[in-house]
Amino acid sequence: MSPTKRNSLNRELAQFVRHAYAHAPAVQKIFDDAGIKPKDVKTVTDLERVPVTSKDRLAELQRESPPFGGFLAVNPKRLSHIFLSPGPLFEPHGAEKALTRVAADVFRIAGFKRGDVALNTLSYHLVPAGLLLDAGLRRVGACVVPSGVGNTELQVKMLLDLQVTGYGGTPSFLMMILKKAEEMGLTVKTQFALKRALFTAEPYPPSLRAQFEGVYGLKTLNVYATAELGFLAYDCSAQQGLHLADGVVVQVCDPTTGQHVAANEAGQVVVTTFNETYPTIRLGTGDLAIYNDAPCACGNKSPRLTLVGRVGDAVKVRGMFVHPNQLKLAMSKFPAIARVQGIVTRPDVRDDFTIRVELAGEASDGDALSAGFGETVRNVCRVGVDKIEFVPQGTIAADAKLIVDERKWE
Q1: Residue ranges per domain, the chain?
Q2: For position 234, what pLDDT does the model report?
Q3: Model's pTM, two decimal places?
Q4: CA 53, CA 282: separation in Å to the nearest integer?
Q5: What stretches in the chain show pLDDT beneath 50?
Q6: From start to end of 193-351, where are the E strands?
Q7: Which secondary-structure segment (H or E) carries 173?
Q8: How far apart are CA 69 and CA 57, in angstroms?
Q9: Residue 254 DSSP SS3
Q10: Which residues contact 106 (CB under 8 A, 6 or more apart)?
């Protein structure tokens, strides 16, 4: 980062911290408990004096002080949206522009521009993902087709009839759409106007990249983002990690001490965005990454991340984090169920979510129980279950993980 950009970022950070301390009771308490004042945070380096707030702690604070845990820093009448993300976490959005500005900058890097017609396939329902992409695309001047998820045949029709030039969403879903188009007798490369795609919400393995860029001739960009924090980092042509986005403070920190780790060491991704509506300073994402500040072959001088896992036990399935406590909540509604275990695999381009169920006794109607439990899990986790598999008593150990990720990213 150039000295000019660094100075500008530090000025924005200092102003933001003062605002958050003055208007968000939870931020004030975090600072006071740590014995620091807003004036103590003048630079990004000074942020390390502020304790990290985990997502689990954020959920606890919201339960203790509903609905926003003391982090709302504006008059509630100024809110334009309230989202509900996995955790569960309420997320208030108002007139803040920071998230949209960062998203638009990354869309420009991906090649999106005025005149593009873009298919946005992320959900507009409850979670902020769909609307974040929508706002970023409109800011660069693109026309957005808010298609959301599902209905691949209709997605094919929209791509063809509207001469869609850009796609935003998960890579697996775009592959499903393109394969459906080919099943319908269409030739994607010649009959579609699709030129570019921005992927997020799930890993983008080399095998899919080779198909999208080699077979279909698309320009693709993979983005690391979270529901609460927006776009954080993006990949490049060199494929040597994810470059940190401008306009957001991303630190890779020791999960125990909260201090920034050295280059090539793994730590938790800790983020501060300039969201004056909901100022979660130093939010721990739970993601583990390796920090790299060496020059990249692509020429971008921004530091990079390589994501390597999760601090906790949550697993992302089809773009949505599924928490073990969500499975526990669903199970609690069915006395006939003694234990459950979710198994995530990826036999093709789509995540498969199977739940093994161990009964407390004999079930009078296994089909009804299977259907009811599957529907409850879908409602709680907002991820559909592909299969409910009943297993004999004693199959699932008492200390077994509630969610097992068996996917291979090759």
Answers
A1: 317-405
A2: 98
A3: 0.85
A4: 6
A5: none
A6: 196-199, 219-226, 230-234, 242-244, 248-253, 266-273, 283-292, 304-310, 315-317, 320-322, 337-345
A7: helix 171-183
A8: 10
A9: coil
A10: 136, 198, 221, 223, 231, 234, 245
